[in-house]
Description:
This protein is globular. About 45% of the residues lie in helices and about 15% in strands. Helix 6 packs parallel to helix 7. Strands 4-5-6-3-7 form a five-stranded parallel β-sheet. Strands 1-2 form a two-stranded antiparallel ribbon. It is α/β, with parallel strands linked by helices.
Amino acid sequence: xxxxxxxxxxxxxxxxxxxxxxxxxxxxxxxxxxxxxxxxxxxxxxxxxxxxxxxxxxxxxxxxxxxxxxxxxxxxxxxxxxxxxxxxxxxxxxxxxxxxxxxxxxxxxxxxxxxxxxxxxxxxxxxxxxxxxxxxxxxxxxxxxxxxxxxxxxxxxxxxxxxxxxxxxxxxxxxxxxxxxxxxxxxxxxxxxxxxxxxxxxxxxxxxxxxxxxxxxxxxxxxxxxxxxxxxxxx
Length: 235
């Protein structure tokens, strides 16, 4: 099945700022990321962890592609000279259901790896995050929370979709505050507008997210409806 190609959306100052950064570094902000010396093995290894639906995802939104370039260029040289994720801005991808937010998020991971970045990353939906960290016998949720907080790149998909409670707000606050303090890139997707997201995750989390992350808004029709298999129409 052909993957949805997100239409470029106006992103104002974000696109101009990222384009300026890339241009001053001698990089064409409209060009496709150049693959590293050995992108294929690393990409194949990463794709074993990417859901099957998104293994061919591309970061084709201009602001997401520009963010990828900024993160890649800021990487610290490691063994063999390949850059690794360092400190950097986070990215908040917002939009209604089915506009390609998760597609863009996994596309960003694939683009970073294809560009030769040594990447340790984790991806989790907000609902699974809370389910995994919920206290239960024989499970060290604190250790898992620390691992997520320290991960060089963390994707939190569908923030604001899980049921709200004081406990989920506190977990989100602890996780995001640690990443905020360490300037670690976090890629967040949400179906909610900023006002609704603030009401759902709390002022403390929303304030940090607003400061640490650039925002990209996707719109358009629900691609799950427009691209569904013809047989589904009769189901």
